């Protein structure tokens, strides 16, 4: 698509803008409203350390913890201020042509376009399964999400590996991978030199406001990504949060949470389907892609009732009748179902 026909405002649209304070929030995919108590306490215990610069030793310890968690080496870990920082670094790889697989999270495309990198959109049709042939041969960078926001499609790890070509780097945005029990299709532990995996602590740990994530990849690529970065890129509390959530106990907690979420998702799919809403399935992420007869109207009706859902027409390949909803507990889903029913869907 020619650069002058790309709507940058649409690419920058995210669920947080759809949810106003006080609304029942199905628009943002963060789990819960705040980090768990133990994590808050751990961060609070470090508040007095804000008076000093974060040390290289602390960052190294966090990198070691992340490396152990993913069965990698510490120099295969680059700590980030959120996955969003990782997307902003991608232009440093100086790709000749970047292919972004859609429908998917739009920040990587925006970051690449804003840096002047030529971008080819690979727009998958329902059921949104990966098709290696659809990726242009000339693409030396391919970016995709797994599980994919907003379709909730979980691509098999081997389907992603099938995109590998000499001279090509593949970036897998696994911001939601820890919401899938056992992380079966994650490439986080794969040491292949052309695979870069991006992880986020935002969603599962309700840490959107702290900005924490990391890249996993070959040291040579990580060095290129980090080149030119400001000194002290992460603060003390960010490093502490990354360290804390990489512990075996935290990983086990995330996995239990993922199991609960999967049960909630199954129940939610059944209830929405019974209402006559089309839910894209199978779904493996902590959100569902819906298709209804008049998405715009339903979204407004729900907003009038104090319920925020994510418009999905800002995702390339989707239209105004697509909406995305986070998987939530039974009480919240009761309210959503009642509100959809009152709209006469
Ligand atoms: C698929 C996906 N990747 C990455 C991000 C950004 O994550 P972070 O908060 O770590 O920057 C989001 C945020 O909505 C997302 O949906």
Automatic annotation (TrEMBL):
InterPro entries: Aminotransferase_I/II_large, PyrdxlP-dep_Trfase, PyrdxlP-dep_Trfase_major, PyrdxlP-dep_Trfase_small
Lineage of producing organism: Bacteria, Bacillati, Actinomycetota, Actinomycetes, Mycobacteriales
Residue ranges occupied by any Aminotransferase class I/classII large domain in the UniProt entry: 26-340
Signal peptide: none
Protein name: Threonine-phosphate decarboxylase
Pfam families to which the protein is assigned, alphabetical: Aminotran_1_2
Organism listed in the record: Nocardia amamiensis
Entry keyword Lyase: yes
PANTHER family: HISTIDINOL-PHOSPHATE AMINOTRANSFERASE-RELATED, THREONINE-PHOSPHATE DECARBOXYLASE
């Amino acid at each position: 698509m020619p650069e002058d026909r790309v709507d940058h405002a649409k690419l920058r649209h995210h669920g947080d803008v759809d949810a106003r304070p006080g609304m029942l929030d199905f628009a943002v995919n963060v789990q819960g409203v705040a980090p768990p108590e133990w994590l808050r306490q751990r961060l609070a215990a470090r508040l007095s350390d804000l008076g000093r610069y974060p040390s290289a030793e602390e960052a190294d310890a966090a990198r070691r913890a992340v490396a152990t968690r993913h069965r990698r080496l510490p120099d295969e870990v680059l700590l980030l201020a959120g996955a969003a920082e990782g997307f902003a670094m991608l232009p440093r790889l100086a790709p000749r042509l970047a292919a972004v697989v859609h429908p998917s999270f739009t920040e990587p495309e925006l970051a690449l376009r804003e840096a002047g990198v030529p971008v080819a959109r690979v727009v998958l049709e329902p059921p949104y399964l990966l098709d290696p042939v659809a990726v242009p041969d000339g693409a030396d960078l391919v970016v995709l999400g797994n599980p994919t926001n907003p379709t909730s499609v979980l691509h098999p790890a081997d389907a992603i590996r099938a995109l590998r070509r000499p001279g090509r780097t593949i970036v897998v945005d696994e911001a939601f991978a820890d919401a899938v029990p056992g992380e079966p299709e994650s490439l986080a532990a794969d040491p292949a030199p052309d695979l870069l995996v991006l992880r986020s602590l935002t969603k599962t740990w309700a840490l959107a406001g702290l900005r924490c994530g990391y890249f996993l990849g070959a040291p040579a690529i990580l060095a290129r990504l980090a080149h030119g970065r400001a000194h002290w890129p992460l603060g003390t509390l960010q490093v502490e949060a990354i360290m804390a959530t990489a512990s075996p106990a935290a990983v086990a907690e995330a996995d239990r949470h993922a199991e609960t979420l999967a049960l909630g998702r199954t129940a939610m799919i059944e209830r929405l389907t019974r209402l006559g809403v089309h839910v894209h399935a199978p779904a493996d992420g902590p959100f569902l892609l819906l298709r209804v007869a008049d998405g715009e109207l339903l979204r407004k009706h729900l907003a009038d009732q104090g319920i925020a859902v994510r418009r999905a027409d800002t995702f390339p390949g989707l239209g105004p009748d697509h909406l995305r909803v986070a998987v939530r507990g039974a009480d919240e889903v009761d309210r959503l179902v009642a509100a959809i029913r009152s709209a006469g869907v």
